[in-house]
Write a structure and sequence with these properties.
Mean pLDDT: 88
Structural class: alpha/beta
CATH class of the largest domain: Mainly Alpha
CATH topology of the largest domain: Hypothetical protein af1432
Number of helices: 15
Helix content: 40-55%
Shape: elongated
Oligomer: single chain
Number of strands: 5
CATH superfamily of the largest domain: Hypothetical protein af1432
Low-confidence stretches: 321-332
Length: 332
């Protein structure tokens, strides 16, 4: 049963909205001002908010802005209820992220129709979020099989997003990189443990199996429309600029820039992580190795250089300054 939070400083208005929604079997909660609305939202986590604009302490538009700026609340529909037709209020509401508007006096049928529509959309969004959560959990379970890769997904998520920002990628691709950092090796679910955890070199036959994991990972994530920008990263993060990578043998600019970003940080993390067959390299040694490999045509030299700068900046910050809130968004 969906929970609707009604926020209005007038008791009569709160009661009226409750009566209008009474026959729809929604649970109703109330708040009498903007500050209380934020506290109640955090406590009850409603499915939709009906929010009066004109209120004491904190007006509805500012409450909406705060809700829409927080990862845990930004997907919850917010309907601004206004007693005026002031276009400036509507513009401010749109900029704050409001999903819809209702004018006072509220028409019952219009209210019910809009609430139903937005709750239906919210249910669909929750399904997608649940599917993403399952994929992230599966990716972490694969990582957990190998004690040498502990924390690999989180590091790649953080590093690739930071590198993407450094080279000026748009926000939707930064989000894709955060997600891809977690699920890039999801296709290894189809690789037998005897190959995945083998301490020594793989045979040619075993390599053929291993090289299928980007394709398998892409196929697992393909049904999720919200992962459309993630799919090229999953499929192509093992390509090399000289065409010697896999699975498609792409060269240079044929490789999507987001895949080149993830490949760069993936190689660095692999080199600086201890393996059964070798010791971990220091960051300086890892970058020296990557520059040599870039000269051989494997990696994008400019991307390696940009990442070296990014890593220096990240390492100079305290752990609590390194995007913990962003990681929460992509790693539920």
């Amino acid at each position: 049963m969906s929970l609707v939070l009604v926020v209005d400083d007038e008791p009569a208005n709160r009661e009226l909205l409750k009566l209008m929604l009474a026959k729809e079997n929604y649970r109703i909660a109330f708040a009498e001002d903007g500050q209380t609305a934020l506290s109640e939202f955090a406590r009850i986590k409603p499915d939709l908010v009906l929010l009066d604009i004109r209120m004491p302490k904190l007006d509805g538009i500012e409450v909406c802005r705060k809700l829409k700026s927080h990862p845990e609340s930004r997907l919850t529909p917010v309907v601004l209820v206004t007693g005026t037709v002031d276009s400036a209020d509507r513009l401010r509401g749109i900029e704050a992220g409001a999903d819809d508007f209702l004018n006072k006096p509220v028409d019952k049928m219009e209210l019910i129709a809009r609430v139903r529509s937005l709750l239906s959309l919210k249910a669909y969004t929750d399904e997608l979020e649940h599917a993403e959560t399952v994929l992230f959990a599966l990716a972490r379970s694969i990582e957990a099989k190998d004690p040498y890769t502990e924390g690999h997904c989180e590091r790649l998520s953080e590093y690739s997003a930071a590198l993407g920002q450094k080279i000026g990628l748009p926000d939707h691709l930064i989000t894709a990189l955060k997600r891809a950092g977690i699920v890039h090796d999801l296709g290894k679910v189809g690789v037998p443990d005897s190959i995945l955890l083998k301490p020594g070199p793989l045979t040619p036959e075993e390599w053929l199996v291993m090289k299928q994991h980007p394709i398998v990972g892409e196929s697992i994530c393909k049904p999720l429309k919200s992962f459309s920008d993630v799919l090229p990263i999953i499929r192509h993060h093992h390509e090399k600029c000289d065409g010697s990578g896999y699975p498609d043998g792409l060269r240079k600019d044929e490789i999507p820039v987001t895949a080149r970003v993830l490949a760069t940080v993936d190689v660095f993390d692999a080199l600086t992580t201890e393996r059964p067959y070798r010791k971990a390299l220091s960051p300086q040694e890892a970058f020296a190795t990557m520059y040599k490999e870039a000269q051989r045509g494997w990696w994008d030299t400019a991307m390696v250089s940009e990442f070296e700068t990014v890593l220096a900046n990240l390492e100079s910050k305290a752990p609590d300054q390194r995007g913990s809130e962003d990681r929460k968004v992509c790693c539920p």
